[in-house]
């Protein structure tokens, strides 16, 4: 017996568990007798679903806060910045908006997410994510980052050489803001950005020279660029 959820067929067991995640009350009379005994899927159980579409639907109804509690994260660093940006009010007028922006970097042991993974001593032992608040709403976002690539993206600003195998002691050089900057990409070379404007996931970048040559492969923004060149966000 199959259960169809968002036009994706599930086997009966997983389908019932996803329905429990999706609905506060029993959606079908046929399930009423069993509804209270049905358990939602855990993050690890979802990660083991082989079918990509089924996994996507299950994650859609998996509560983000529940995921964070399950993987037992550790706060690595927190950074708060005083910011000011321009908003347009209901009358269409420009107004200055000042706020405190807080970014937090967390790490999670890989075993907490992938219990069957074989992790060698020379390999990175943790996954990392950055947590921050949406500028214009009360939503919080969690974005996983490649911490080794964050380091290498900012290596010149740290005054250090790149590393292939990440070492925990390198964390002292990385800020949560570096991690947020790393999630943004551009094909404008370093040193040729005049200013950056951000609206959600959309970026407007003004270059210093209209004749500047763009690079063929997109790169991550550095923390220094994001900190110094971001002039407005919403």
What does this entry look like structurally?
The termini are far apart. A hairpin with a 6-residue loop joins strand 5 and strand 6. It is globular, with a radius of gyration of 22 Å. The chain has 234 residues and is an alpha+beta fold. The chain contains nine helices and eleven strands. The protein has two domains: 61 residues, no CATH class; 163 residues, no CATH class. The model has no long low-confidence stretch (mean pLDDT 87).
Keywords:
234 residues, alpha+beta, 2 domains, 4-stranded antiparallel beta sheet, 3-stranded mixed beta sheet, 9 helices, 32% strand
Decide which structural class fits the backbone.
Answer: alpha+beta
Unreliable parts: none
Strands, count: 11
What is the tally of helical segments?
Answer: 9
- Provide mean pLDDT, rounded: 87
Q: Which value, in Å, is the CA radius of gyration?
A: 22 Å
The overall number of domains is: 2
Query: What oligomeric state do these chains adopt?
Result: single chain
Rough outline: globular
**Helix content range of the residues, please?**
25-40%
The sequence of SSEs as H and E is EEHHHHEEHEEHHHEEEEHE
Specify the biggest β-sheet: 4 strands, antiparallel
- CA distance, first residue to last residue: 47 Å
Strand order of the largest sheet: 3-4-5-6
Strand content: 25-35%
